[in-house]
Write a structure and sequence with these properties.
CATH topology of the largest domain in chain A: Rossmann fold
CATH class of the largest domain in chain A: Alpha Beta
Strand order of the largest sheet of chain B: 2-1-3-4-5
CATH architecture of the largest domain in chain A: 3-Layer(aba) Sandwich
CATH superfamily of chain B: Glutaredoxin
Helix content of chain A: 25-40%
Strand order of the largest sheet of chain A: 9-10-8-7-11
Oligomer: heterodimer
Distance between the termini of chain B: 47 Å
CATH class of chain B: Alpha Beta
Number of domains of chain A: 5
Distance between the termini of chain A: 63 Å
Structural class of chain A: alpha/beta
Shape of chain B: elongated
Strand content of chain B: 15-25%
Order of helices and strands of chain B: HEHHEEEHE
CATH topology of chain B: Glutaredoxin
Number of strands of chain B: 5
Number of strands of chain A: 22
């Protein structure tokens, strides 16, 4: 690696890659070579920048010019204009949703300026495949410090003092968890990283693994030292091929460099790390099911106690933490626990990464200090609701979480505040919902997911979620009964209490919280056979107002099922038996003659 | 990659890697070359190469080499600006590659403006 005057960073996260960033990278390299700039300018592929909405993303340093939606032909222009002639390509700059002003520099984007990126600090800034680039960002310094200056007990104490809590959603004190495992007797122990991220709409862990894999490795090595383990597993779902590829490369590189394996940094400490691919079962994100899966058994939870700290993987004391939790460890040890505890709110210290999705302008990955309000996340960082529509709710914590409404917009985010409001922190999925989303339909979506993913071991979860789903389907199809709401609440509370693992214990949450805040929507479905959001197709009818229809035939052409008939310049008619209620005709009608209700 | 077997070696790798990725932030010292069509036609690229060579030769740190488009002084191209932290930006014009090492040494490193080559102070 030589010194270059300019580094061009191209996002190689999954979002940007599917948007064609590989081709952009190739075009940039070709263009730079063709113009004889290859001795001055280097192109680097990085992990996710978080602003997936604007991808593929290209950043030109040292200026930090931030280009969005870059296509291969745009890459040619960046070479010809910016790299060769020093002229910024204005049309590719990020434009704010609210104003049309272009924002040229990375650090000035409102999306980033309101964030505090501790865990994600290297994502989008370094080449994740380069150990050297990680080391340039103080990588492995924390491990070196811990191995040479601290006893395992001191490390546990530091993690405790930092206030770090489980980022997978549990929120249990990481330091306490480590202490239980450290005190558990036995010559053989394991540390495990839970990278079986399965919540619909969540991609925090994937981006971390893809963007900064060495940070996870370093965190786990520190944890292993603190707890007396010499072997570790990263359990990563097979649906994350890029994350697995980068993990394997980083492990090989770290072993070659002597930062993993035998006698690390000459201190006598040994730690080997394996990657185990999960086969796509959501329940394997539950720690005991995950350990069963590593052992080659069927991925089903086992009762606790005994807790993994006493009897975990292969019956040995084990500690399992989520990707984001591990990613915080090295930084806490590098900067000190007080530094970390400085960020945050109440009993929730540090920052939290959220995958912001749904009906929001800037979908992507955001990291904010605990205590930030939901309004700041959705409106200041997220740029508000798409199309200026009305905010209705956020679903936080995925299928295990709950929804929060407008009244919670100014709620500071912490483990306790979210639980009190009926939701959970969860792993960090944050789905924004607008006025066009039916809450019954959304609850049905999440329950369909958990019901399908229930492993079937315990009856409350296996049978209970099925019954709840049957009721929800009935309601959304206009066959709801008066007693359905009471039954949903009864079933939901029973399933929560009687299920064996976290999957069942949290599965009813989306239903229970939507019932808590949007009961009137359920009632409208049941009593009036009406979907207030106009989303449940069985409950809406689309009709043409003959007084307004001029017979332009636009709707006839738009209808995918040929349900509209009529002659030119005569009012048209929709055949209700054929209509699939897709609403395509409503959108194309220039005279607003088509009604959907 | 060679094995890192102690703290000293890790520190060495860190320092080397930091130097190699330094261009990813704006340096406190900046050298800005005019590379619009006029700058390129007048030989701006040779100026840039000379500047980069001199910076590498002297092992200067915290310096970013940037490019800029045409600023309207085409008759004075090739142009090169020097910015030192806390000091006004100085524009040099009508440069030849052999002028560059002197400007880097006198101005960028030692803070003495090479007056005879200055054509303006934009700020």
């Amino acid at each position: 690696m030589a010194t270059f005057r300019s580094h061009v960073l191209v996002c190689g996260g999954t979002g940007c890659t599917s948007g064609g960033s590989d081709k952009v990278l190739e075009t940039l390299r070709e263009g730079i070579k063709a113009n004889g700039l290859d001795k001055e300018i280097t192109v680097v592929q990085t992990g996710c920048h978080g602003m997936c909405e604007a991808g593929p993303i290209v950043i030109v340093y040292p200026e930090g010019t931030f280009y969005t939606h870059v296509k291969p032909q745009d890459a040619k222009e960046i070479v010809a204009e910016h790299l060769l002639k020093g002229r910024v390509v204005e049309r590719l700059l990020y434009k704010e949703a609210m104003h049309s002003e272009a924002v040229p520099h990375y650090k000035e984007l409102p999306f980033y300026s309101k964030q505090v990126r501790l865990t994600l600090r290297n994502c989008g800034y370094i080449d994740p495949d380069s150990l050297e680039e990680y080391v340039a960002r103080d990588g492995y310094q924390a491990l070196a410090k811990v191995l040479t200056e601290k006893t395992p007990e001191q490390v546990v104490e530091d993690i405790k003092a930092s206030g770090l809590r489980g980022r997978g959603g549990g929120g249990f004190s990481t330091g306490m968890k480590w202490m239980f495992c450290a005190k558990s007797p036995g010559p053989k122990k394991y540390v495990i990283c839970n990278a079986d991220e399965g919540d619909p709409g969540a991609f925090m862990d994937r981006s971390l693994l893809e963007g900064d894999p060495h940070a996870i490795l370093e965190g786990m090595a520190i944890g292993a030292y603190a707890m007396g383990a010499d072997e570790g597993y990263i359990y990563c779902r097979a649906e994350y091929p890029l994350a697995i590829k980068r993990l394997l490369k980083s492990i090989t590189d770290a072993e070659e460099a002597g930062l993993l394996g035998e006698n690390i940094l000459g201190t006598g400490f040994n730690f080997t790390l394996h990657v185990k691919e999960g086969a796509g079962a959501f329940v394997c994100g539950e720690e005991t099911a995950l350990m069963n899966s590593i052992e080659g058994k069927r991925g089903m939870p086992r009762p606790r106690p005994p807790f993994p700290a006493i009897k975990g993987l292969w019956g040995k004391p084990s500690n399992i933490n989520n990707v984001e939790t591990w990613a915080n460890v090295a930084q806490i040890m590098f900067h000190g626990p007080e530094w970390y505890a400085n960020y945050g709110y109440d009993k929730s210290r540090g920052t939290k990464v959220f995958a912001l999705t749904g009906k929001v302008n800037n979908t992507g990955l955001v990291e904010v200090p605990m205590g930030t309000t939901i309004r700041e996340v959705v409106f200041d960082i997220g740029g508000g609701i798409i199309g200026g529509k009305k905010f209705k709710a956020v679903q936080i914590g995925g299928p295990s979480g709950g929804c929060l409404t407008e009244q919670h917009l100014d709620l500071p985010i912490s483990y306790e505040s979210l639980t009190a409001a009926g939701a959970i922190m969860g792993s960090g999925g944050l789905v924004v919902v607008d006025e066009d989303t039916c809450m019954v339909d959304m609850a049905k979506f999440f329950l369909e997911f958990t019901q399908r993913e229930s492993c079937g071991k315990c009856i409350p979860c296996r049978e209970g979620t099925k019954k709840m789903l049957d009721i929800l389907i009935r309601i959304t199809e206009g066959n709801g009964r008066e007693e359905d709401i009471d039954n949903l609440i009864y079933l939901g509370t029973q399933i929560k209490t009687a299920s064996l693992c976290g999957l069942g214990q949290t599965a009813p949450n989306p239903v229970l919280t939507t019932l808590r805040y949007f009961r009137h929507e359920y009632e409208a479905h049941i009593r009036e056979k009406r979907c207030p959001a106009g989303a449940c197709t069985a409950l809406i009818t689309i009709t043409i107002d003959p007084a307004k229809c001029v017979g332009c035939t636009k709707c006839t052409k738009a209808c995918p099922v040929n349900a509209i008939s009529g002659t030119v310049k005569q009012p048209h008619l929709i055949d209700q038996d054929k209509c699939i209620k897709c609403g395509a005709c409503v959108e194309v009608c220039p005279f607003k003659a088509i009604d959907k209700k | 990659m060679p094995k890192i077997s102690n703290l000293e070696e890790l520190k060495k790798l860190r320092d080397k890697s930091i130097a190699e990725t330094a261009a990813r932030k704006e340096g406190r010292f900046r050298v800005i070359i005019g590379l619009g069509t006029c700058g390129i036609a007048a030989g701006g690229r040779k100026i840039m190469e000379a500047a980069m060579e001199e910076i590498a030769k002297r092992g200067l740190k915290d310096v970013s080499v940037e490019t800029t488009g045409c600023i309207g002084m085409c008759q004075n191209e090739p142009l090169m600006d020097i910015v030192r932290p806390g000091e006004p930006r100085v524009t040099y014009g009508n440069l030849k590659p052999e002028d560059v090492p002197r400007i880097i040494a006198d101005h960028l490193v030692n803070g003495n403006v090479v007056e005879e080559k200055v054509i303006g102070r934009p700020e």
